[in-house]
């Protein structure tokens, strides 16, 4: 709708009751020079405020409030917002809501595609780690490969089978926790440091001799 709805008001809106005046003298043979062209601007009252209406020489009419002439479409557009090259149409009063729905849905689609790409890359990377029985740290450091220029070595933790590696990482038994959550923490006893014999005691004056 944003691309096919016609927002134009000028030459395509001949049925509207809009004053269409000519600023040029009529072509008669009387030779009269008393012709006065109509003013190029008009003023109308809108909500207690005067609004100036300009005359469009192309569409031959006074532009309604908030109307501008689009140089691309060569027509006056009511409540002209802008000419969008992506939809190939002017955005105005009759299609602004469809344009807003278009960019809103496009924003949601962009966020959805970005989330899918990030999820795909992350899931694919960690699926590779699980199938190889590697950790992210080992893969980045290249512990069992020649990524850092060293000699490639065999991963000693791999079971030589993708299924076995997946079962070992995802379905293997969990080791017991080494933290005793019900135990009591014993406070460390801080022993005072002994005073050296060659240092003066606190408050004692050093020997002047």
TrEMBL record:
Enzyme type, top EC level: transferase
Membrane topology term: Multi-pass membrane protein
Catalytic activity: L-cysteinyl-[protein] + hexadecanoyl-CoA = S-hexadecanoyl-L-cysteinyl-[protein] + CoA
Region ranges (Disordered): 190-209
Location relative to the cell: Membrane
Keyword Cell division carried by entry: no
Transmembrane parts of this sequence: 98-123
GO CC aspect terms: endoplasmic reticulum; Golgi apparatus; membrane
GO BP, sorted A to Z: protein targeting to membrane
Pfam families: DHHC
Signal peptide: 1-23
EC number per UniProt: 2.3.1.225
One GO molecular-function entry: protein-cysteine S-palmitoyltransferase activity
Domain Palmitoyltransferase DHHC intervals: 52-120
Domain remark text: The DHHC domain is required for palmitoyltransferase activity.
Protein name: Palmitoyltransferase
Organism per entry: Diceros bicornis minor (South-central black rhinoceros)
